[in-house]
Amino acid sequence: MGYDGFDYPDPAEGEAPAPVAIKILIAGGFGVGKTTLVGALTEIKPLRTEEDLSQPGAAVDVLAGVEAKRATTVAMDFGRITIREDLVVYLFGMPGQERFWFMWDDLARGTIGVVILADTRRLSGSFPAIDYFEQRGTPFIVAINNFDGAPRHRFEEIRQALDLDGSIPLIACDARQRDSCRDALVALVDQAISLVDAGGVAPVS
């Protein structure tokens, strides 16, 4: 959506209008693949705020299921997708650790919706993001990131485990594959449009 208060150039003066900017968030628990998904989609070099995992951090970052992880996002990931000349998508990957949740309110402003990534080995890591965006009334979908070696479950079982309302789309995703990530964004936009058409939410959160 366009940003309030921005003075767009007058086309009559020979300058093209600024493109419409759409903000989409990528959320989920620690080590669920948010940085990887943003990197798979962005057309520019992604902005990453990763730091090496430290010994003190090991006391608060539970590595069960992601023992090979060596770095963590301490602020956000950022990427960009140009749909056409007048339409640009900005992607923001949200930090998953509890000690960084204080940033969520700021990152959530102005978004049209959220892709919440989940890992079947650690589904509980997705609960905070699901609860947060349910309470805000923000459109979201849940995408199961298909990690190699992770157990596969029927979607009905996953939906029940996440206590996910039947109206929330639940899809499979591979955060390493651009086409798979693109399909997740399309599913999110479809969900946001359907909710707006139904009068359930405002166009932006």
What is the gist of this entry?
The protein has 205 residues and is of the alpha/beta class.
Structure description:
The protein is α/β, with parallel strands linked by helices and 205 residues long. Helix content is 25%, strand content 22%. It contains 5 helices and 8 strands; from the N terminus they run E-H-E-E-E-E-H-E-H-E-H-E-H. A hairpin with a 2-residue loop joins strand 4 (77-84) and strand 5. The radius of gyration is 17 Å and the shape is globular. The N and C termini lie close together (11 Å). The model is unreliable at 1-6 (pLDDT under 50).
Overview features:
single chain; 205 residues; alpha/beta; six-stranded mixed β-sheet; two-stranded antiparallel ribbon; 8 strands
List the helices and strands and how they pair.
Blueprint: E1 20-28, H1 34-41, E2 50-52, E3 71-73, E4 77-84, E5 87-93, H2 104-108, E6 113-118, H3 127-136, E7 140-145, H4 155-162, E8 170-173, H5 178-197
Parallel strand pairs: 1-5, 1-6, 6-7, 7-8
Antiparallel strand pairs: 2-3, 4-5
SS field, number of helical segments? 5
Give the strand line-up of the largest sheet: 4-5-1-6-7-8
> What is the structural class?
alpha/beta
List the helices and strands in order: EHEEEEHEHEHEH
Annotation, overall tally of beta strands: 8
